[in-house]
Design goal:
Blueprint (H helix, E strand, L loop, with lengths): L12 E2 L3 H10 L9 E12 L5 E7 L6 E6 L13 E9 L9 E14 L3 E7 L12
Length: about 140
Amino acid sequence: MFEWLKRQRVETREFTDNAAAFAHACSLDWQPLIGAVLPALVEEEGARGAEGEHRFLVSLARRTTPLKFWTCTLKEACKYPEVGDLVGFRVVLIASDLPEDASLIGYIACKLSPVLKPRKGWAIAESYTPKDIKQDIHF
């Protein structure tokens, strides 16, 4: 009678590769919120920026069609993603007055494993964010 009170057990989903994980991420409903880390797939490596940051063309996971745009890692980052990696794009600002492919302002924060954990999200394989960067304080 009280089976509905028991917590539902949700299994961890492991994908064969980054492309399969990205396809699944596109089927989920991601909201671009400030501070959120959204899954993206690295498509192409670009030229280095004037301050030393590495630029990449990424496809951001969306339900309709993936959003392609250029983004970068922070200039203080010691490690960088490679083409084909599943990465986490951290949203810093949403500029609604700019075109859609330039409205999300942020950086590549981490490399994601093709493992989706229940209630926690994608497993982080490697961080590209420097440890000495100033973190946001939320009250």
